[in-house]
Amino acid sequence: APLVRTVPRTARIRRADGGELRLSANVGSEADARAAVAAGAAGVGLVRTELAFTGRSALPDEDEQVSWLSAVLAACPDGPVVVRTVDLGGDKPVPGLRLDPVRHGFLGERGLRLCLARPALFATHLRAVLRAAAVRPIELMFPFVTEPAELAAARAALRSAAASLRADRTPHAEPTAVGIMVEIPTAALRPAPFLPDVDFVSVGSNDLVQYLTAADRTVPEVAAVYRAGEALVPELVAGLVAAAAPVGVPVAVCGDLAGDPEYAALLQAAGVAELSMAAPLLAGVRAALAD
Ligand code: PEP
Ligand code: MG
After folding, report:
1. Is the CB of 183 under 6 A from ligand 1?
2. Residue 190: count of CB within 10 angstroms of its CB
3. Mean pLDDT score of the chain
4. Membrane-spanning residues where (predicted)?
5. 44, 81, 109, 116: least CB-packed within 10 angstroms?
6. With left for phi above 0 and alpha for psi between -120 and 50, is residue 271 left, alpha or beta?
7. Measuring from atom 8 of ligand 1, which residue has the nearest CA?
């Protein structure tokens, strides 16, 4: 059963269809979590756990990941908090892993693909996330999912991490919900095969636009075609909502478009349940949607 959630009223906007739109924050540090509280965020739609891995020379061990994530979670606002499993590779190099820029680049083994290819790294990470979840309830989200078999494998890894913690009698908590990021066109264009196995989906517009336009999100020379492709996102999100709503799966957006006032209005019209953005953008989006 879902937990009772206390959400600041100011952060909720009534949707045209009567549903509530949650305005949440993206968080990558304790300071971000405090900024989310100060900005009146209704929750956290994305905790970027890879920030526990970057900015250091060695990989964090399980205890180090637990202490990083516990501190972030303790500082988060009330309301749902979505922790994303570690999203490495692509534009997110990791000193501790020495990832090849092509094999682990934007079209390579990154995100969930990398975690599934390194079961020990993933198991340690999942144990750390479940241990940190003892601080407060979390929802869990897998990034960069291309096909349903990956989701099934990730769920199996999650079950064995929980089983190993039970066997160790280590304090932990299982997520109250499990979802995926929709940031690869396969999932955005044909979401149906994923829906029976998720409690929610969250659209990563940054990567989705990159793969729709074949324009690298970090290369300024192709920024104009990348931006032109953003116009496709509200339409795809509306299609996603049309597929997901009948089976009771809420659709969130946690990519940068969620924090753009004009796109936020279009995404609201498309029927999203949550927009999650950098905390400083919340006030502008709230004002735009209140109009
Ligand atoms: C996205 O791709 O839109 C997203 C939210 O994830 P990231 O920017 O971390 O890839
Ligand atoms: Mg992404």
Report:
1. yes
2. 12
3. 93
4. none
5. 116
6. left
7. 206
Distance (angstroms) between ligand 2 centre and the Cα of 166 equals: 32
* pLDDT confidence tier of residue 4, bands split at 50, 70 and 90: very low
Mean pLDDT of the region 218-241: 98
Span 232-244, average pLDDT = 98
* E-strand stretches of 28-176: 44-48, 81-84, 139-142
pLDDT higher than threshold 90 for residue 20: no
- The answer to whether residues 252 and 241 touch, using CB atoms and an 8 Å cutoff, is no
Query: pTM of the predicted model, to two decimals?
Result: 0.94
Beta bridge partners of 277: 25
How does pLDDT run across 155-199, given as a tens digit for each residue? Answer: 999 999 999 999 999 999 999 999 999 999 999 999 999 999 999
Ion ligand 2: residues, CB within 5 A, are 183, 204, 207
Say if ligand 1 is within 6 A of residue 60 CB. no
Q: What is the rounded distance in angstroms from the CA atom of residue 235 to the CA atom of residue 172? A: 40
Residue in 182, 270, 278, 27 with CA at minimum distance from that of residue 289: 270
Beta bridge partners of 252: 202, 274
Ligand nearest the Cα of residue 209 is 1
Compute, in angstroms, the gap from residue 282 CA to the centroid of ligand 1.
18
* Pocket of ligand 1 contains residue 184 by CB under 6 Å: no
